[in-house]
Structures are given as structure tokens and as C-alpha cells.
Design a protein that fits this description.
Layout: E1 3-14, E2 19-30, H1 37-73, H2 114-136, H3 138-141, E3 146-150, E4 153-157, E5 159-160, H4 163-174, E6 181-184, E7 187-188
Parallel strand pairs: 4-6, 5-7
Antiparallel strand pairs: 1-2, 3-4
């Protein structure tokens, strides 16, 4: 039910010849107002925004579930880092070149045969002492010197860097009990 209202106005119009009064009436139409239209419009706008937000959240959740399923299906790769392996240090010890072949002398034993076995036992003890002395001294063990003992005579073979090293080896061997003589065949490295 629309409201109708008439508005009346009196207007004075002056013209050069006459002055007259004109009544002007105008009908104004006001629509029916219930007061709910603004509130209804606001409620609809809020509902549309809420539905859009729910739809977006639903789609995002669904996409995350799909990504999680894909991640579970793919096999996981385990990376194990190990320290880099360095090649082992290889030390090749070559026997010293023999300038003269070793001379082996067979001493016929005395009638009792006791001196041959005694001499072998003494040589073996002297050989052990020389080997121990050379291996326990770091400056001598790195040279690669070999010694052979026969009847208390020690033959030294190997290669050294200087005359002083050659003399140091000979002095160390000469100090061992049971050494009668030394044949120093140690060569100098060129």
C-alpha cells in the first residue's frame, strides 16, 4: 500500500503587464516502507560472503588431502652421507740391491758337534737383538735396512740418503752384544 500525498504550493509570477498568483500542486508518491529491506540486504550479503569462504576452504582442504596422498604413495629417499674414502697409503719396501751374493759357509762341527749348535743359537740371539734395535728406533726403521748374522759376523744391506745415516746404522749394530764384525754393504741413494 503506497502512500500518496499531494503537495500544494503558491507561486507568484510577475510579468511586465500583470502580476498573478499561480497555484501549483504536485502529487508525490512514497512507496511503502517496512524497515526490513536494509537489514535483509545486509543479511544476504553476509550469507553470500560466508558461503564463498566455506567453498574456498573446502577446495583448499581437498587439495591438501590430494597432496598428502601423493606424498604417501611416493617412496621416500634416504640419503646417507659417508665421509670420503681416501686411498690407503701404500708403502712398498723393496729389498736393497745385493751387490754381492751372500756367502754361506758351512763350518764342519767339532767331533762333539756342540760348537755348531751353540754358534747357531748365538747368531739367532744376535739377529733378534739387531732386528729389535732397528725396529724400535724410528730413524733406523724407516730406512729399510736388513742384517744377516753368521758366526757373529753381521752383513748390513740397504739404501740410505747420506754417509751419516750409514754410520749411524753401523754404530747401533756394533753396540749389540755378540757382534764380532760388521760387513757394511749399505749403498747411498743417488
Amino acid at each position: 500500500m503506497a502512500e500518496h500525498q499531494a503537495e500544494r504550493k503558491r507561486v507568484v509570477v510577475e510579468t511586465p503587464a500583470v502580476r498573478r498568483e499561480v497555484e501549483h500542486s504536485e502529487a508525490v508518491h512514497y512507496p511503502e516502507r517496512t524497515g526490513a529491506s536494509g537489514t535483509l540486504l545486509a543479511a544476504v550479503a553476509v550469507a553470500v560472503v560466508a558461503l564463498a569462504a566455506i567453498a574456498i576452504l573446502f577446495l583448499m582442504n581437498r587439495q591438501q588431502d590430494t597432496n598428502a596422498n601423493l606424498a604417501q604413495q611416493q617412496p621416500q629417499t634416504t640419503i646417507v652421507q659417508q665421509p670420503a674414502q681416501q686411498p690407503p697409503n701404500v708403502v712398498v719396501q723393496q729389498p736393497a740391491p745385493v751387490t754381492q751374493p751372500p756367502v754361506i759357509v758351512n763350518n764342519p762341527g767339532t767331533a762333539s758337534g756342540g760348537s755348531v749348535s751353540t754358534s747357531l743359537n748365538q747368531d739367532s740371539a744376535v739377529q733378534s737383538a739387531i732386528d729389535k734395535k732397528i725396529s724400535n728406533d724410528p730413524s733406523l726403521s724407516s730406512l729399510g735396512i736388513t742384517a744377516m748374522v753368521l758366526d757373529g759376523k753381521v752383513t748390513l744391506m740397504g739404501i740410505v740418503h747420506s754417509e751419516s745415516e750409514k754410520a749411524r746404522v753401523e754404530r747401533a749394530v756394533r753396540a749389540i752384544k755378540g757382534v764380532k764384525s760388521i760387513d757394511n754393504q749399505i749403498s747411498l741413494q743417488p
